[in-house]
C-alpha cells in the first residue's frame, strides 16, 4: 500500500485522536447492509507499463487493469459484523489481489504509520476495532435497487467514505466503489488523463453492476469526493446510463482548466440533476494568494440541469471523507472541532439521500426536502445554505429532437427543428447523426418517419450528396417513384457517374411506363 501525501492536502499532523464514525440524521435505513469484496480486471486496458519501472525489463505477469470493487447492498441480517480494520485490510489488496494475511497486516501498519503517524497504539487499536454497520458477505435481499457508483478522491482507497456508502445501502441502494488509481501506477496524477481513467473505472463498475440481480440499472448515480467529483462528471458526459450526479467538494469546482480540456463535457451532455456539496468558500483574497481565481465554471454553464449547490459552512475539504473523521488529526478540520465537522458530515449524507430519493426514486417528499429552506428541514442554524438552479428547458440535442418528434406523432420534424433553432441559434445536428437516425426507421420499414428526417437533413446540408441519396433511396422504398426519380437526379448532380443512382432512375422510369407510379 502506497504512502499518500496527505500532508500536502491537509497540513502536518500535530495531534491525532481517533473517533467513532459519523451518524446521519434519522439513523440508518430499514435494510440490513451486506458488504463484499470483488476482484475484477478491466481487460480493455493495460495497467503496468510495458517496461517495469523498477527492473527496466519487460513487465511480467498480469497486465490488465485491476479493479477491486467494494459492494454495499441491502441484505439479510446475517453474518459477522465488519470492523473498521477490515476496510483498511481490503485496501492492501487493491493493486495486488493475492497478498497473504501477513503481507496485508504489514501493509495496514505501514499505511497507518505513513498517514497517521501521531495515532498512538491505543488509539489505533480502538479505531480499528470499531464495529461498522455492514456484515461481511451477508445474503443479498431479493428485489431491485438503484445503483450508486462511488469515486474516491485522488489516489484514495475505495472505502474512504465507507460510512456514507453503508448508510445509503441501508436506505435501499446498491453502492459500488473502487480505489482511485492512476493510469499505470497506484498513485494518480492531477490531470485530464487521470480524471478520464477514473471516469472509465466508473463506467466499468456500472457495467459490472448491471450483471447483479439486485441492480436497477435504469436508475444510476455517480458520486465522487474531491478528484472523484471531477471524474464522475466526465463519466456522465460520456455515459448516459448515469442519470444523476453527486459531488462531495468535488474537483469539478477546483480544477476548471482540466474540465475545459474535456471539450465533450458540455451542458448539453450534462443535462441531468446534480448535487454539489462544497466546503466553506474561500475569500477572494485567499483565492488570489493561492492563484486559484477560476476563469471558468462548468456548473455555471449547466443551464439544462437541476443543480443543487449546498455550502457546508463548518466543513473543510477533509471533513467530506469519513476516514479523516475517524483517524485524522484535529487540524484537518480547520477552525472547527471534529464534533462540528462530524455533525455537518451527517447532514451532508442526509442531503445526498434526499437527492437520490428525489431523482432515482421519484420521491415527492424528498424533492420537497431538496427545495426547502434548511430550517424547514430541521437543519441546525447556520450549518449550511442551499442554492438551487432549475433547468432551463430541454437541451438542444438530437436526442431531444427525437423525443419531441415522437411526442408530435412523428410529424412536422422541420417545425420542431425550427422551434429548437430559434431557442438556440447554434443548434444544428450532425449530418451523419441525422442519417444514422433515419436508418433506425429504415431498419423497421417506417419510411414516412425516415423521409421526414432526410428532408430535414437535405435542407440543413444542401451540398450533401450522401443525404440526398438517402432521401432518394427512402422515397424508392416507399414507392414514391416520382419523388425518388427527382432525388436520384439530384444525386447525379453531386456524383455524375454513380451507377446505383442511374440504375434506380432507369428502373423507376420503367415502372412509370408500366403505370406503377405512386
From TrEMBL:
Q: Which domain of life is it from?
A: Bacteria
According to its UniProt entry, this protein's organism is Duganella aquatilis
- PANTHER family referenced in this protein's UniProt entry, alphabetically: PLATELET-ACTIVATING FACTOR ACETYLHYDROLASE (PTHR10272)
Keyword set for this entry?
Hydrolase, Lipid degradation, Lipid metabolism, Signal
Q: Which Gene3D superfamilies match?
A: alpha/beta hydrolase, Tetratricopeptide repeat domain
| One MF annotation (Gene Ontology) recorded for this entry | 1-alkyl-2-acetylglycerophosphocholine esterase activity
Signal peptide per UniProt: 1-19
Q: What is the protein's given name?
A: Tetratricopeptide repeat protein
A single GO BP annotation from the record? lipid catabolic process
Q: Does the keyword Amino-acid biosynthesis apply?
A: no
Coiled coil region boundaries: none
| Dienelactone hydrolase domain sequence ranges | 144-257
Pfam families attached to this UniProt entry:
DLH
